[in-house]
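Quick one:
INPUT:
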């Protein structure tokens, strides 16, 4: 079996890392922060590991470091960043945003209101705003965008922040 030149190996590994990084980043919902800086740094490290394929591969430890680096920075980190991009509170906020957009569209409005979001959150068993307690008696994030959206009305945390730009375009982030 003919061996593949180090340049072809490095190029193939680099292309694969770029494809995985872009696919993982674009798999995240566009309403969420995609963490482009972290993804760019991870891709840069993966490309550095791919460049190690161009160096002398006679030493076993160098082969192991290169292989582990390519697997971790080229596959594991991008995939886990994508998987962890939507914890349950973010999934809940995405569903509430979709319901609020549908309610505004149904009522022939071009803007989502706080009331739309409140009704959507309550219909799904959640609430908006911080939980009122003895320690913090003032509710925050319940009367203007960005709103605090909680998946469970009786629990203060976890929560996500939801805002709408340009009327019906939702933006969700951890807060």
């Amino acid at each position: 079996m003919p061996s593949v030149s180090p340049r072809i190996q490095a190029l193939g590994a680099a292309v694969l890392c770029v494809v995985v990084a872009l696919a993982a980043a674009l798999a995240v919902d566009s309403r969420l922060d995609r963490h482009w800086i972290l993804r760019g740094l991870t891709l840069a490290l993966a490309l550095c590991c791919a460049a190690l394929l161009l160096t002398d591969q006679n030493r076993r430890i160098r082969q192991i470091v290169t292989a582990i680096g390519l697997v971790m920075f080229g596959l594991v980190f991008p995939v886990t960043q994508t998987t962890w991009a939507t914890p349950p509170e973010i999934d809940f906020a995405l569903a509430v945003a979709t319901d609020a957009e549908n309610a505004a569209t149904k009522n022939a409005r071009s803007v989502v209101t706080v009331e739309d979001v409140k009704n959507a959150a309550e219909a799904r068993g959640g609430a908006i705003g911080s939980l009122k307690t003895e320690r913090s008696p003032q509710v925050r994030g319940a009367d203007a965008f960005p709103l605090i959206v909680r998946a469970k009305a009786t629990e203060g945390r976890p929560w996500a922040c939801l805002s709408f730009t340009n009327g019906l375009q939702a933006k969700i982030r951890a807060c």
